[in-house]
Design a protein that fits this description.
Blueprint lengths: L1 H16 L2 H12 L8 H36 L3 E5 L5 E5 L10
Antiparallel strand pairs: 1-2
Helix pairs in contact: 1-2, 1-3
Length: 103
Amino acid sequence: MEKLDALLDQAAEALIAGDFAALTRLTPQIEGHNLANIDRPTAETLRAKALRNARLLDAATRGVTAARLRLAEIASGPTLTTYDARGQKALLSVVSELRSHRV
């Protein structure tokens, strides 16, 4: 079980570093371990590491989602957020007449 313990640590390091290619390599190795016949302290250690990795994966997912949304926002151009008399949010696209051109 030492190998699985090390693999879980490597997965945590990959999540912290944002190394998704390493996660792709590690996942089949982690999933391939047989957890039958392990003692309770080892099982609890592995469980704690798996929960840590789940939290890290959740945080990484939120970060990637936030980055994707921010890139979409940037790509759509500048907008102005206003509210009407009923309190409804409205986004106004700001179109600049001054465009820079390369010469």
